[in-house]
Amino acid sequence: MKTRWKALIAFGAVVFLALTVGLLYLLISSIDVNQLPLIGQKVAVIPIKGTITLEGCSGGIFGTAQCASVSTIKEMLKNADEDNSVRAIVLDINSGGGYVVASRELERAVKDTKKPVVACIREVGTSGAYYVASAADSIVADRDSITGSIGVVMTIQHYYGLLEKLGINVTVIKAGKSKDLGSPYREMTEEEKRELKEVIDKIYYDFVSDVAKNRNLSFSYVEKISDGSIYLGSDAKDLGLVDYLGNLDDAIDIASELGRISGEPAIEEAKPRKISLWDLFRISAEDVGSEILSVIHIISQNSND
Questions:
Q1: CA distance readout (Å), 11 to 19, 25, 193
Q2: In angstroms, rounded to a whole number, what is the distance separating the alpha carbons of residues 207 and 183?
Q3: pLDDT of residue 160
């Protein structure tokens, strides 16, 4: 009889334990950790400063970035998007734009970010930088900031006249009539100008289309105000290119609201990785190694000769 009771008690304990574990699992799985008071109360601030480029930024010995590297900014966006302690993101923009493909790639990265993103235009946010900002959920700009400049430009330098004066002649041998399109050694034909204009027009169309979609505006309206003109932040707001006038603190407040942060948010300033002494040593070693290989190659060639 005692053995039977012990078995029943043991069975009851197992059932009770199983029910307790099941209830705890349901309770924990239903909790959004981002809603906990000590978790998910941060706003990540990501800087976009200087020319937007796919190439790495040049820097001095102290690692001061000279451009807005797309790969670096995308990495910071990804880290903030995956960090449970971050509820919203602010793009701290001070850039006159950059290269077409680089700006579009960064615009796509901002658009694909799952968490709320607020773009803050401080002094300048024009051309490619505005392209990136347009993908954010909301745009804040200082009333006297410079923004807009929606357009595309291609600059080709010619110095065949100078070479002629110096008595220098350049002979170009090509296969394909457009192979030396834009050559600085000769005057461009009208047909070549039209060809390049078609390229620029297609890029411009994509730019205007994306801004129109991102800002919930019609293509015809955005095209009308996209003649390359720059606008003060206050004028950009009137035109619908900006949502709010304010500074970085205002942008953080709006991001907190979008991220449903209660109370004062913690600010996490995302920073690109600085160039270390090891990086400088590694780059120098690679350069030296490349030079050694070149010398070996030359010696090998001379020996064979």
A1: 12, 21, 87
A2: 27
A3: 81
Q: Which residues fall within 8 angstroms of residue 84, CB to CB, at 6 or more apart? A: 33, 34, 39, 40
In terms of residues, how long is the chain? 305
Instruction: State the Cα–Cα distance between residues 241 and 220, nearest whole angstrom.
Output: 14
Structural contact between residues 272 and 264, judged by C-beta atoms closer than 8 angstroms? no
Is the Cβ–Cβ distance between 195 and 106 less than 8 Å? no
Enter the pTM of the model: 0.73
- Cα separation, 44 vs 115, whole angstroms: 11
CA 128 to chain centre: 10
Catalytic residue list contains 213 = no
If phi > 0 it is left, if psi is from -120 to 50 it is alpha, else beta; for residue 137 that is: alpha
Set 95, 127, 134, 145: catalytic member: 127
- pLDDT tens digits, 51-64: 999 986 665 545 54
Burial class of residue 194 in the structure, from the number of CB atoms within 10 Å of its CB (0-12 exposed, 13-18 middle, 19+ buried): exposed
**Given the residues 177, 179, 202, 274, the one annotated as active site:** 179
Domains of the chain: 39-149+229-299 (3.90.226.10), 153-215 (no CATH)
What tens digit of pLDDT does each residue of 146-198 get? 999 998 888 888 888 887 888 888 888 889 888 888 888 888 889 988 999 99
Is 85 among the catalytic positions? Answer: no
